[in-house]
Every structure is written in C-alpha cells, then in structure tokens.
Amino acid sequence: MFGRRRRGRTDNGYEDYPGHQPGDDDWQEPADGEDDWPEEREPGEEDGPEPADGEDDWPEEADEDQAAQAAQPPEPPLPDGPLPDGPWDAGDDFPRGARIDFGSLLVPEREGFEVHLTMADMQPAWVTVVRGDSGLQLQAFAAPKSSGLWEEVRGQIAQDVAASGGSSQEEPAGRFGPELNAMIVPTDPADPAGASGGAPRGPLQPVRFLGVDGPRWFLRGLITGAAATSPDLAAPLEDIFSQVVVVRGDHPVPPRDLLEIQLPEQARQALAEQAAAEEDGRFQLPDPFDRGPEITETR
Q1: Angstrom distance (rounded) from CA 261 to CA 139
Q2: Cβ distance 106 to 245 under 8 Å?
C-alpha cells in the first residue's frame, strides 16, 4: 500500500513479475556451430558477474534510490542563534538544516519539540508542532499570482469567530506582519480552530492566527495554549514558523485550496512495515503490550 513492492522470486526460482514464464529471458547453451556471442558484442567482452543465489538479477529503481539516500548524510540541525526570518519558498536561498518533509511543508526539527500530523477524512489535514502545553498548527494554501490571501482571510476569520460566540482583535505589528488575536470556543481539544466542525465544548480559549503570503501560496499558523498569551513561550514556536519552507509546486491548484500534505518517508515505511507484519501474522494472537504506530516526530 505504501511504497513499491520489491520483486521477489517464486519457489521455482523465477521472477514473479506479470507475464513471466519459466524459460523467458533465460540463457541457453548455443547449438554446435552457432556463435555464442551476440553480433553486436566483440569477443573478449564479458558479462557482469552473475547474481549470487537468492539475489535479484532485476535491479529495482527503489533499491537504487534507497542506496542513494543511505549514502547521503542526514541534514544537520538548524544553526543555533538568530536566523533570517521566513517562512520560505522552496526556491529561496533559505538556511539549511534538518526539516521533516510533509510534501508541501518542510517543518524544522528542533530539540524539545514534537511534530504531529492530524488526519481528517482519512487524509492529512494539518501539521502541529508541540512544545510543552503549547502548539503551532500549520497549513499551506494555494494563492493567486496577482495578490495574497492573508488580508481577506483575516477578515473572514474574525467574522467566523464572532459568529461562534468569540471575539478577536487585529494586531497590526506582529513579528510576521498583521496577525489576529482571538478568544474562540473550541470544538475539540485536538482542533482548537474548529476545522473539523464538531460541537463547541469548554470555555473560550486564547489563540493567535499568523499568516504570510508567498509566491502563489499562503501559510497560516495558529498558536494555541499558554504561548497564545505569553510572548516568551511563543518565541520558540515563532522561530519554527519562521523556518518553515513551503513547496508550492508548478501544478495548478485553485486559490484557497489546501496544498497537499503527505506522510513523511519514515512514517510511510513504518506503516508499510506494520502492514507487512500484520499480513505475516494474520493468524497470530496480537501482543497486548505492543503499541501501534504513531505519526509523531519527537526531538
């Protein structure tokens, strides 16, 4: 389901790719008098080494990709200390450092932070960076070439907050420009902005809406928890927001549509391994002490 399945061998030793029959592509001893070298090959040229028993003589692109990735050293952490403020477009000369690849979002890895991916309707919906009891929710949207979205979106958020029984106030001089400070009625502890449309619950909660317009994209940030009212607690989350890289891509996306969020490679591998393990152990009793997969990056 995740990734590409490696071609294996059947019990008779032949490849099990579709259409292959025993004898296809197999070398045969030439008859007497026949030249055992193809016409386009000069005598003295030799084939490469034969694969050892159990090896796959049909190289896979996936194997080459994995080998190339394994040969590349991991990105070092982002440098300590002040960095130029983003957020960044993928085409910018942004500060290099370790980031988690969510497709449209490259999210910095930092010690002491957890990174969660929230699913909605079986699809990745947003990324949340958590530090202590505070969080930063991240979503990137397509935007028109000619203008940004943040000014219009701020007004729409303010209307929605008021309609739900909350209040908001614009802060014109935030770190990233205009932002919106709000008191909202949360619908779910895991969804403080009420994006899932659940029933309201609990008292009003403070939040900060951040927004930055980029080339054909708009990045929205939502700070929740204690950091929403504490500048000191908010600063580390703002630093994360400032080093997010948005990968817009060249494909057409209607303005305001969410840019696709993908599972990181590590998560895809973990789910593929889990699926394979479940397939192998279909008739085994589950281990009651075995934890299931978690799409969480802890640093």
Answers
A1: 9
A2: yes
Q: Let me know if residue 138 belongs to a domain.
A: yes
For the chain, what is the mean pLDDT? 75
φ/ψ (deg, to 5) at 174: -75, 175
What span, in angstroms and rounded, lies between the C-alpha atoms of 87 and 176? 9
3-state secondary structure of 53: coil
- Amino acid making up residue 66: Q
Termini Cα distance of the chain: 28
Tens of pLDDT, residue by residue over 54-96, are 554 544 554 555 555 544 566 676 666 566 789 999 999 999 8
Candidates 270, 189, 256, 179; CA nearest to 216 is 256
Say which CATH number the domain at 112 has.
3.40.1000
Q: Name every residue whose Cβ is closer than 8 Å to that of residue 117 and which is 6 or more positions away in sequence.
A: 102, 124, 126, 127, 128, 261, 263, 264, 267, 295, 296
Write down the residue that tokens 């504490």 correspond to. 230
- Residue 128, in any domain of the structure: yes
> How does pLDDT run across 214-223, given as a tens digit for each residue?
999 999 999 9
276, part of any domain: no
For the chain, the domain total comes to 1
* Rounded distance between C-alpha atoms, residue 289 and residue 3, angstroms: 28
| Segment (H or E) for 129 | strand 123-131
Phi, psi of 280, rounded to the nearest 5 degrees: -70, -30
Q: Which two tokens stand for residue 61?
A: 């692109």
Tally DSSP H helices, then E strands, for the chain. 4, 12
Give the global pTM: 0.65
What's the number of CA atoms in the CB half-sphere (13 Å) around residue 254? 1
